[in-house]
Structures are given as C-alpha cells and as structure tokens.
Write a structure and sequence with these properties.
Elements: E1 14-20, H1 35-44, E2 64-69, H2 77-91, E3 94-100, H3 106-116, E4 121-125, H4 145-152, E5 157-163, H5 168-177, E6 180-183, E7 199-204, H6 226-234, E8 240-246, H7 257-276, H8 281-286
Parallel strand pairs: 1-2, 1-3, 3-8, 4-5, 4-7, 5-6, 7-8
Helix pairs in contact: 1-7, 2-3, 3-4, 6-7
Bound molecules: manganese (II) ion (MN) (2 copies).
C-alpha cells in the first residue's frame, strides 16, 4: 500500500491524467515504465501548446487535472494498486486517462469502469489482440488484459482496430468472447462500428506503423497512420469515461518521434473525454 495513492485529488466530473510507470508485465523488452516521465516532459516542456485540434485548451481548464504518477511495485500488487485507484476515480466521477506503462495497466483500469457500466464498450487500438489466456505463465502479462476483462465482465463489448498479429489461440479467444475486430488487412473497413456509450479507449502505440512510431517494444509493420487513428477518435460522440495510452518504450525512440505522438494523443484523448463526458456530477449519475 502506498500512501500517495490515498491522497490523489480527483476532479469531480472532470478528467484526470495518471502516469503508470510499469513494465514488469512486458514479455519482450522493458522500458515502458519510463514513458510517463518522457511524455509529461514533452507536454510541459514547450514543444507544443495545450490546445487540441478542435480548439479546446486544456491549460487551466477547470475540469482537467494532472494527477501525477502512481507509485507502483514491479510485481502483481501493481494490478491491485491500479484497480484500487481506478475504483476511487469511478466513485469520484473522474474520467481517468492512464498513461502507461505496458498494456497490463488496462485490465485494472477498464475493470473499474466495467463494474460501474456493465455494457461498457472497449475501443482497443493495437497491432496485437492481447487475448492470451496466459503468457509467460502470467495471467496479467501485457498480452492478456482483454481476456481478463471479457471473462470477468460478460456484457462488455470489445472492438479492436489495427490488429495484424493474430495466431490460432488468439483467434479462438476472439471467437469465444465475441470480439469485433477490424484487422489491418481489411483496412479501410466497409463500415465503422457504431458506438453506444459509455466508451473506454485503449491505445497501444504499436497499432501505428513502426515508420511513424518506432519507440515500442514490438515492431509490427503494416499499421495505421496517426491521421487514421485521429480521424476515428474525432468521430466519437459517446461519453469517453476512461482511456489509456500505453507501450511507449523510450529506449527504442532515439528521435523522440513516438513520444511526440503519445503526447499528442494524450492531448487529443483528454479533449475528447472533456467534450463527451458530463460537466456536472448529477449528470454523471444518470449515465448508463
Ligand atoms: Mn501491441
Ligand atoms: Mn497491447
């Protein structure tokens, strides 16, 4: 138990940015634990301003708060720590934007919202389906978060975008859980999914083609452009109650281009959360 997590001041009916410096659930390379510090340095370092493409200025916005980094142990207790903090955010009616860290953070973050909204939709951008039942002996590996979510919350709808690394086990898992997948080999899709809120958005930066985002642990060519992802995000109108941006690995990103993309996504997703979620606590009560 860390004392710090009990003192987080969640903004009611607001959006909170929470850094999650964790990479012990990465199966291949470590490094993602340094991502929150690198992204925050870019966001606060004068590279860009705080205004989204649609014109919303986060700087000084009364509903926007940087909550800092959550202290995490590099073991299974981190899953419980993140889950505890996410449940506190849900209780405070704070839309939480998690900044990873590896993809293991998504299970405890999204689970807190699935408990509040049983018919939650997950919009998941990733080269990989992350549906392994176990990976490397761990149920919490960054290759497993969506299997954990769907086995625990049967009414949750999962829409995956950008997948291009299926194998037989994960295809079976996708069928078993009724996952809707927009594979890269079928891009552009004949029709985009229609969302009915509330929505949780998870962006694994390896969904982008490594030409645009080399700073990830797993290079999988043939991915999305940043513009294609932004276009899809900017079409979302349902309440985005939670989100995460994960898998930046600064040790693979010498030019900083992937960190710049991550920082832009933090800004754009935060703006999306602010414009789609209610500004009053009593309106949050009515969400379902
Ligand atoms: Mn991935
Ligand atoms: Mn992933």
């Amino acid at each position: 138990m860390s004392a710090a997590r009990e003192t987080i001041d969640f903004p009611a009916a607001g959006v909170g940015l929470l850094g999650l410096p964790l990479d012990c659930f990465s199966s291949y390379r470590r490094g993602a634990a340094r991502a929150p510090a690198v992204i925050r340095k870019l966001l606060c370092g004068g590279m860009s301003h705080w205004t989204t493409e649609s014109g919303l200025n986060l700087k000084g916005h009364p509903r926007w708060r940087d909550l800092g980094d959550l202290p995490l142990s590099a073991d299974d207790s981190a899953i419980e720590t993140i889950g505890h903090t996410a449940r506190r955010a849900v209780a405070a009616q704070t839309a939480l934007l998690g900044m990873g860290g590896d993809h293991a953070v998504t299970y405890p973050l999204a689970a807190a919202w699935a408990e509040r909204f049983p018919r939650l939709t997950l919009l998941h951008f990733d080269a990989h389906p992350d549906l392994y039942d176990r990976f490397g002996g761990s149920p919490f590996s960054h290759a497993c978060p969506f299997a954990r979510l769907l086995e625990s919350y049967s009414q949750v709808r999962l829409v995956q975008v950008g997948v291009r690394a299926f194998n037989r086990h994960q295809r079976e898992q996708a069928e078993r859980f009724g996952v809707e997948t927009i594979e890269m080999r079928h891009w552009p899709p004949a029709e985009m999914p229609i969302f009915e809120g509330p929505l949780y958005i998870s962006i694994d930066l390896d969904v982008f083609d490594p030409a645009y985002a080399p700073g990830v642990s797993h290079h999988e060519p043939g991915g999305l452009t940043p513009r294609q992802c932004l276009d899809l995000l900017q079409g979302v109108t349902v309440p985005v109650v939670g989100a995460d941006i994960v898998e930046l690995n600064p040790s693979r990103d010498p030019s900083g281009i992937t960190a710049a993309l991550a920082a832009k996504l933090v800004k754009e997703v935060a703006g999306l959360m602010l414009t789609t979620t209610p500004a009053q606590p009593e309106q949050w009560e009515r969400l379902q």
